[in-house]
């Protein structure tokens, strides 16, 4: 979840992917999240089987509680992401309304995964290091503590990239200007045929084209900036 989910989060934020089609990036985003979900389920099954084989109690620590909660909410996030943003059945107003929730919940799940990993490695150190103990700061403890610091730094970088506006996929790259019924796109036939139009008519055309462009950017914002 730490590595694959982070890749799914920033796949829209990488500049070299901005020229790819929106549909392709949606499939990549959904595919990475699906892989992370499958690996998370396999890992949880392995943990329960290991505990049962060693007669270790299940679901008693805070690490296990928060980890299971993260997996459950992540599965819901994945299902709703497929149903609303990938399949073409959901109306655009619904996508626009759910997009902030989708982004916020995705980032929250990622932060929860980082916290779960930190609690897990700390719990492992406490249980495994007996002689010398964890409190004596043996090399294993120093190594894992450094790993925890790297996890925090990595998580902070991913959240920073996902929250900065200049890292977002530019909607102008794949946007097509919406045209009214019987109209033409901005800067094409409509302007070329207005040789006899007045300045007021040209001003009206620019205003209408600008309004259509803003409307399209709003719809594109709702459809392509998803972060599961």
UniProtKB/TrEMBL annotation:
InterPro entries per record: CYB561/CYBRD1-like (IPR043205), Cyt_b561/ferric_Rdtase_TM (IPR006593)
Organism's domain of life? Eukaryota
**Region: Disordered, residue numbers:** 173-228
Q: Which Gene3D superfamilies match?
A: 1.20.120.1770
Swiss-Prot/TrEMBL cofactor(s) = heme b
Q: What is its EC number?
A: 7.2.1.3
Q: Which UniProt keywords apply?
A: Cell membrane, Electron transport, Heme, Iron, Membrane, Metal-binding, Oxidoreductase, Translocase, Transmembrane, Transmembrane helix, Transport
Listed GO cellular component terms?
A: apical plasma membrane; lysosomal membrane
Residues in domain Cytochrome b561? 1-163
Q: Which GO terms describe its molecular function?
A: metal ion binding; transmembrane ascorbate ferrireductase activity
On assembly, the entry states: Homodimer.
Protein name (record): Plasma membrane ascorbate-dependent reductase CYBRD1
Protein encoded by which gene: cybrd1
